[in-house]
Amino acid sequence: MPDPYRQIIDRLTASRRVLVSTHVRPDGDAIGTTAALVLAMRKVGVESEVLLLSHLPTKYAFVYSENQIIYHDVEKGWPERFGFERFDVLLVVDTGTWSQLPGLRQRVEPLSMPKIVIDHHLTQEDWAELKLVIPEAAAAGEIAAELIELWPIPIDQAIATALFVAITSDTGWFQFANTRPFTHRLAATLIEKGVDTDRIYQLLYQNERAERVALQTRAMQSLELLADGRLAVMRLSRQDFADTRASVPDTENLINVPLQIRTVQVSVLVIEPPDQGPVRISLRSKGQIDVARFAEEFGGGGHARAAGLKLHATLQEAHDRVVEALLSRMT
Amino acid sequence: MPDPYRQIIDRLTASRRVLVSTHVRPDGDAIGTTAALVLAMRKVGVESEVLLLSHLPTKYAFVYSENQIIYHDVEKGWPERFGFERFDVLLVVDTGTWSQLPGLRQRVEPLSMPKIVIDHHLTQEDWAELKLVIPEAAAAGEIAAELIELWPIPIDQAIATALFVAITSDTGWFQFANTRPFTHRLAATLIEKGVDTDRIYQLLYQNERAERVALQTRAMQSLELLADGRLAVMRLSRQDFADTRASVPDTENLINVPLQIRTVQVSVLVIEPPDQGPVRISLRSKGQIDVARFAEEFGGGGHARAAGLKLHATLQEAHDRVVEALLSRMT
């Protein structure tokens, strides 16, 4: 069986210009991995540009801007002619499904452009000519690191920093259960290549708006502990967003705060979005209860420990329905 | 020059029974490292017991209780005769100074018992016959791991877990600037030996009382952002402790919450303790301002990024004095 690493290296090396893309709403793994691959290819004379299907998140923008990475953001609409013919290969990282690449399929399928996928997600489709999928990898960045080492292309400080952003983002800074020995050994190597870990920590975790902390305070003031402290419920109303001038992205990670309490098995955050959409309910579990199965009953989904659902109801109604259903499962 | 690792291994191997001790108010590194060494010596037939100068912290008690580690807690007073003569060696870890070992010096100095120190702190004294001090180690647990590997004693799941508690505690789960490539490589090895990292994370970071979260909410409600958002100040009154039924140890890490805000350079927490003692002021810095130097001006001390001081004043007076002094330095 041909080695997919070598096949991908050979195909990319033989290209003049590569278009790199990743999933909609890119996270740190998506941005870090695309950047690391662009920088690596640059070292062997292969030009590349990134196609982003959503805006570049402010939090991760430094990874691109510090390295003069050329990217095209089509969130607000595609240009009449994108110019795919300028590229020899489409390299997609951190997803293997068209649904995560809105607008790309209809534009790319009619072309003869070869497609490569590098990913660590279980859900995959079969449209790429070359695929490198390693589900046990904590991040796509781990696979990119292997590829760059095998190429071989020397990992410099810039590549190391991009890869470090990728792996720390997808593991919650080495905290989530996907963190494996490989992840720590890669981190050791990247630090030796010059990653300023202190700076990366500040950029990823100490770079929030004050509005976010005000919103967190509101959420914590609403905390209810139910079922002998096993169920934690917080809520944020439209008024909370207005008073604190925060927005929905500021709610990221707030749901984890009650998990620090010993007795809490499930944390719920009920959000009435300022934009009049449906009420959004996020769920986190420490493992005893499968919140994905719970969310599915309400048309939502996710993972066993992190799931979500939406309800067309008032904040109070949505809160009551979800809490009642959870309580009936926890007693 | 003789190898201190080998000298210590030889001395411990030649002992029948070793007394292991560590600094007052033991942290995760102290508890994890003492446990790992007791377990390692047990594997080569050397009995050992731990002498704790403070109570075993609840958070880390599992490390001892799961491994039937014998320990003596003298926080409430020493027995009339401790029975030092039962031990051949005193092995002190995670400190090298008598001031961190209250009550031990006067009891041990008159005896002929040899003393060994394994530590990573810069401040050292010269009373131990054998010393192994590695200041660049992130934790004493890193040095213990090296010693156990060189012995050689196989690292089993129990030893690996104790060492993992040691290194994650002293690095804030690989976050502080002391985390080095060695730390990550050791973590990789320990995970391969069977550490349940998810369980350790829950025991160390998701094992708090609900009262703590209530107190955190109070602190966050008091948040002031001054000097264009560069200075964050929170306060907790005696009334806050009474209302939330929290106690002073519940304030641990609360001061870090405002550091998530991009603009904040210094975070201050002003605490009026429920026990009528002086007002306690904690200071944290992201690096631009040396809070140890600031604290020293008020008779306090600490590190450049984490310091503290005490003031005999009302909560409001203490708050005003510290804020005024900080503002004059930040403009």
Span of the ends, CA to CA of chain A: 53 Å
The main pleated sheet of chain A reads as:
6 strands, parallel
Number of domains of chain A: 2
Using the coordinates above, name the CATH class of the largest domain in chain A.
Alpha Beta
Multimeric status of the protein = homodimer
Which regions of chain A contain 5 or more consecutive residues with pLDDT less than 50? none
* Biggest interface, residues from each chain: A-B, 45 and 45 residues
Report Rg of chain A: 21 Å
Descriptive account of the structure:
The structure is a homodimer of 331-residue chains. Chain A has 331 residues and is α/β, with parallel strands linked by helices. Chain A contains twelve helices and twelve strands. Chain A folds into two domains: 4-205, inorganic pyrophosphatase (n-terminal core); 211-329, Diaminopimelate Epimerase, Chain A, domain 1 (Roll), CATH 3.10.310.30. Chain A has helices spanning 4-13, 28-43, 61-65, 104-108, 140-150, 157-171, 181-192, 197-205, 210-221, 238-244, 291-297, 315-329; strands at residues 17-22, 47-52, 71-73, 89-93, 115-119, 130-133, 224-226, 231-236, 266-271, 279-285, 301-302, 306-311. Chain A has a six-stranded parallel β-sheet with strand order 3-2-1-4-5-6. In chain A, strands 7-8-9-10-12-11 form a six-stranded mixed β-sheet, with helices on both faces. In chain A, helix 2 (28-43) runs parallel beside helix 5. Chain A binds chain B through residues 173-175, 177, 179-185, 187-189, 191-192, 197-198, 201-202, 205-210, 212-213, 216-217, 220-221, 223, 225, 229, 257-264, 286-287, and chain B through 173-175, 177, 179-185, 187-189, 191-192, 197-198, 201-202, 205-210, 212-213, 216-217, 220-221, 223, 225, 229, 257-264, 286-287.
